[in-house]
C-alpha cells in the first residue's frame, strides 16, 4: 500500500483535496482507503448506529448491501491503523501532520502557513486560495489535481511498519 498525507491547518481545504485525490485514484483503478485524524474526537451523528453506540454498545455496526459503518470503543495508534489498511493499493490520509511517516501534500492558504507545514517528506503544496506563489516544492492550484496525483503516484511509497 502506497500512501500520501494531506496536511494543513483547520479549514484550509484538506478534506476537499483529500476527497478529490481519492476520486482521481479510484478513477484510475486503484483500491483506495482513506484515514482521517480526528484530533478533537469523533462527532457522532443521529443515525441509529450512533444512537446505539452512544447508549453504551462496545461496537455498533450498520450494514447495507453496499456499505458498512463501524463504530468501536477505544482508539487506534497511527501504526495500528496503517497496519489494518495495508491490503489496499493506496491510502489517502487527512491529517497526522506531526507523525505520518510518508509523503505529504501541504494545503496552505499563505506562504507563512506553508513554511510551518514544510517537512522533509513534503512533495507538493496545494493552495486553494492562490496564496502561495513559490515554494521549494511544486505548487498546485484548483483545477491542477490530475497533475498533483501524477506526482503523488511517482513519489509515494509504503509507510514503514511500526513507525509513527
UniProtKB/TrEMBL annotation:
Coiled-coil ranges from the UniProt annotation: none
GO molecular function: GTP binding
An individual GO BP term: Mo-molybdopterin cofactor biosynthetic process
Superkingdom per UniProt: Archaea
UniProt domain Molybdopterin-guanine dinucleotide biosynthesis protein B (MobB): residue ranges: 4-114
Gene3D superfamilies with a match to the protein in the record: P-loop containing nucleotide triphosphate hydrolases
Stored PANTHER family: MOLYBDOPTERIN-GUANINE DINUCLEOTIDE BIOSYNTHESIS ADAPTER PROTEIN (PTHR40072:SF1), MOLYBDOPTERIN-GUANINE DINUCLEOTIDE BIOSYNTHESIS ADAPTER PROTEIN-RELATED (PTHR40072)
Record protein name field: Molybdopterin-guanine dinucleotide biosynthesis protein B
Origin species: Thermofilum pendens
Source species taxonomy: Archaea, Thermoproteota, Thermoprotei, Thermofilales, Thermofilaceae
